[in-house]
Design brief:
By secondary structure, the protein is of the alpha/beta class. It is built from five helices and five strands. Strand 4, helix 4 and strand 5 form a beta-alpha-beta unit. Helix 2 runs parallel beside helix 3. The longest helix is centred in the C-terminal third of the chain and has 33 residues. The radius of gyration is 16 Å and the shape is globular. The relative contact order is 0.14.
C-alpha cells in the first residue's frame, strides 16, 4: 500500500519537484505551502508521514510541530532544513519529531524514513484502538 504523505514547504519549486519525485516512487503526496494550511489539512485527513520545512514565514516548523503533535499525537513528522543545528535537532526530537533531514534531501534516505514513520504510526494507531476497546469493555462490563 502506498505511503500517504503531506509535504509542507514554502518554496514552491522545491515542493513541486519533491512531490513529483515522491509520486514517481509510488507515494501519494499532498502539498501545502504554509504550516497553517497543513494544520487545516490534518483536521480532515490522516497521513503516514508529514514532511515539514523547518524555516517558513509565518508559523515556522518548530511551532507547527508542536501544534500538529497537540492535535494529532500519532503524526509522524520529519523536519527538513537547510539550517540544521544540533540544538534545533535535539529540540525537535524532544517535541516529537520522528526524524530530521538536511536539505537538499537525499530521496533514498527520505523514503526509508517515511517507511519507518508509516510503520511507527501504524503501531501507535493500533495501540490507541486497543485502548479504546479496553475502555469500552470496562465501561460496559464486557
Amino acid at each position: 500500500m502506498s505511503e500517504k504523505i503531506l509535504l509542507v514547504d514554502d518554496e514552491k519549486d522545491f515542493l513541486e519537484i519533491m512531490a513529483e519525485r515522491m509520486e514517481a516512487r509510488g507515494m501519494v503526496v499532498h502539498t501545502c505551502t504554509t504550516a497553517e494550511a497543513a494544520l487545516e489539512k490534518i483536521k480532515s485527513e490522516n497521513f503516514d508521514a508529514i514532511i515539514l520545512d523547518f524555516m517558513m514565514p509565518g508559523m515556522d516548523g518548530m511551532h507547527a510541530l508542536k501544534e500538529i503533535k497537540t492535535k494529532s499525537p500519532e503524526s509522524q513528522i520529519i523536519l527538513l532544513t537547510g539550517h540544521a543545528t544540533i540544538e534545533k535537532s535535539v529540540e525537535a526530537m524532544k517535541l516529537g519529531a520522528t526524524d530530521f533531514l538536511e536539505k537538499p534531501a537525499d530521496l533514498e534516505a527520505l523514503e526509508k524514513k517515511i517507511k519507518a514513520a508509516k510503520t511507527e504510526r501504524m503501531v501507535i494507531v493500533q495501540k490507541q484502538a486497543e485502548e479504546r476497546i479496553k475502555d469500552v469493555l470496562r465501561r460496559f462490563g464486557g
